[in-house]
Amino acid sequence: MFQFITNLKVYDNIMKDPARFISNLSNVKSDKFQISFAVPAINLEKLAGLFPGKIKAQHVDLNPLGPYTGSIPMESLIAYGINGSLLNHSEKRIQSEIIKDTIKKAETLKFDLIVCCENIKEIKLYSSIGARTIAYEPPELIGGNISVSSAKPEIIREGVKICEKEGSSLLVGAGVKTREDVELSIRLGAQGILIASGITKASDPRSALNSLTLS
């Protein structure tokens, strides 16, 4: 099923009451989308309990449980019932070697790691070493009004081919605002959408989400 992941980031309107925000959106029904939410670290445990199966982390660390102040171990997320996380988002980039080792660990723990990539070079690299889900997000389009599917369709096509060869899925993000953006992404072969401000900063987030789901 086509993934639809809303990244809540840490916007002020979200942090006031993230549970209420998600509750307003979580019962939007679609037989074509699997809807989930990447939420702030401070809210992970609570929201995972309130919305089982719908919550992902915005970041996960490589280290295990132990003396690692401020970290988010994969084992803790799994214990909370959270089986997925973004990694290497353009707003939280990390070293390539750490990404590689985290991909290997996720495979061992059967954890759904969504590795964010800025270009074809990164898509090739991380899909080739076992990343099962790749999110293509050109940094210059994030938060803007031009969607990646419109601005760079040729990269999505190439990314889809690379991921299919490696047995991976490609999600697209950055600038997605309309149903046409979503439909174009599907036609290009993408298997999901990663969206943030198009929902989180909308005057009516529920209507914005409904407008993007396909009938």
Q: Number of helical segments?
A: 11
Q: Work out the number of β strands.
A: 8
CATH topology: TIM Barrel
β-strand percent reads 15-25%
Low-confidence stretches: none
Order of helices and strands: EHHEHEHEHEHEHHEHEHH
Tags for this model:
eight-stranded parallel β-sheet, 8 strands, 215 residues
Tell me what you see in this structure.
It is a single chain. The protein is α/β, with parallel strands linked by helices. It has a single domain, classed as TIM Barrel. It is built from eleven helices and eight strands. The chain has helices at 12-15, 18-26, 44-50, 74-80, 96-109, 120-128, 148-151, 153-166, 179-187, 197-200, 205-212; strands spanning 2-7, 33-39, 55-57, 84-87, 112-117, 133-136, 169-173, 192-195. It has an eight-stranded parallel beta sheet. β7 (169-173), α9 (179-187) and β8 form a beta-alpha-beta unit. α6 (120-128) runs parallel beside α8 (153-166). It is globular. The two termini are 14 Å apart.
Task: Put the structure in a nutshell.
It contains eleven helices and eight strands. The chain is an alpha/beta fold. Helix 3 links the parallel strand 2 and strand 3 (about 55).
Describe the SSE topology:
Layout: E1 2-7, H1 12-15, H2 18-26, E2 33-39, H3 44-50, E3 55-57, H4 74-80, E4 84-87, H5 96-109, E5 112-117, H6 120-128, E6 133-136, H7 148-151, H8 153-166, E7 169-173, H9 179-187, E8 192-195, H10 197-200, H11 205-212
Parallel strand pairs: 1-2, 1-8, 2-3, 4-5, 5-6, 6-7, 7-8
Helix pairs in contact: 6-8
